[in-house]
């Protein structure tokens, strides 16, 4: 199998929810020298979008989404060490920032957020992960407690992404907004949306997130 075929195998096997086949494809990809980052952000992420589409079309149900998430997490466990090594090599920062991260209220999607966490940590930053379904009050409490440089918010639903604006509004009311760099992400969000709600930055994936946070770290000193 060549690189293209292996990448296609991983994508297809994940869409078909065949976990063993996905892991087999991952091993083959690693042997061919494909990076863990490329595997996760490439065919694995593409397959998740495809699975989302199948769900939307009524071909897949929640059970399939859960299974896909389990397979994704298995692969993340397999690639954890490599992902960290790669992120470290690609983007080690000289200035370590403290980052509070969470998926906003009403939303329990955490795969993308966890990927962002792993890569930020590997790049040398300290991440306080508040988990999923995080309310504005919880974000504020954590910001008061940890005094972070950066707040990262994730949302995967068009209904929950609006809550990010609510969090920013509350931060303003509490006089905390100006102290912190706010970066957001998640499939339904965009650069335009980030600007509209008054966030400082948006990243389309975990690599971009690290790049932006590192750039901010450099500018901040
Ligand atoms: C797996 C999955 C689930 C799993 C999640 C398991 C888990 N532990 O996360 C489960 C089964 C729980 C689930 C539930 C639901 N889901 Co769902 N789910 C998905 C699916 C298929 C994949 C998401 C995923 O993991 N992608 C892979 C990761 C790597 O990508 P990512 O999350 O986008 O993250 C990357 C970037 O976005 C970015 N990023 C993400 N977060 C952050 C944060 C920061 C700070 C930064 C900088 C960057 C960043 O970097 C990440 C890494 O590169 C998506 C489809 C899709 N297109 O996204 C639907 C999808 C998001 N789900 C959807 C729906 C409708 C639901 C449910 C409402 C279904 C229901 N009726 O119950 C529930 C909602 C539950 C809730 N309250 O949150 C819809 C949302 C539609 C919409 N317009 O809002 C989608 C789009 C599917 C679809 N096409 O219909 N889901």
Question: How would you describe this structure in keywords?
Answer:
221 residues; alpha/beta; Methyltransferase, Methionine Synthase (B12-binding Domains), Chain A, domain 1; five-stranded parallel β-sheet; 5 strands; 60% helix; binds cobalamin
What Rg, in angstroms, do the CA atoms define?
18 Å
Count of helix runs: 9
Query: Which percent range fits the helix content?
Result: 55-70%
Main beta-sheet annotation: 5 strands, parallel
- Sequence of secondary-structure elements: HHHHEHEHEHEHEH
Write down the CATH topology of the largest domain.
Rossmann fold
The count of DSSP E runs of length 2 or more, i.e. the number of strands, is 5
Strand content: 5-15%
Instruction: Identify the CATH homologous superfamily of the largest domain.
Output: Cobalamin-binding domain
Q: Please tell me the total number of domains.
A: 2
Structural class: alpha/beta
Oligomer: single chain
Q: How would you state the average pLDDT, rounded?
A: 95
Which ranges are low-confidence, i.e. pLDDT below 50, for 5 or more consecutive residues? none
CATH architecture of the largest domain: 3-Layer(aba) Sandwich
| Top-tier CATH class of the largest domain | Alpha Beta
The strands making up the biggest β-sheet line up spatially as 2-1-3-4-5
Ligand set: cobalamin
Task: Record the SSE blueprint.
Blueprint: H1 3-15, H2 19-31, H3 36-56, H4 62-91, E1 98-103, H5 111-122, E2 126-129, H6 136-146, E3 150-154, H7 163-173, E4 181-185, H8 191-197, E5 201-202, H9 206-220
Parallel strand pairs: 1-2, 1-3, 3-4, 4-5
Helix pairs in contact: 1-2, 1-3, 2-4, 3-4, 4-5, 5-9, 6-7
The protein binds cobalamin.
Cobalamin is lined by residues 41, 45, 48-49, 51-53, 55-56, 62, 65-66, 68-69, 106-113, 115-116, 152-154, 156-159, 183-188, 203, 205-206, 209.
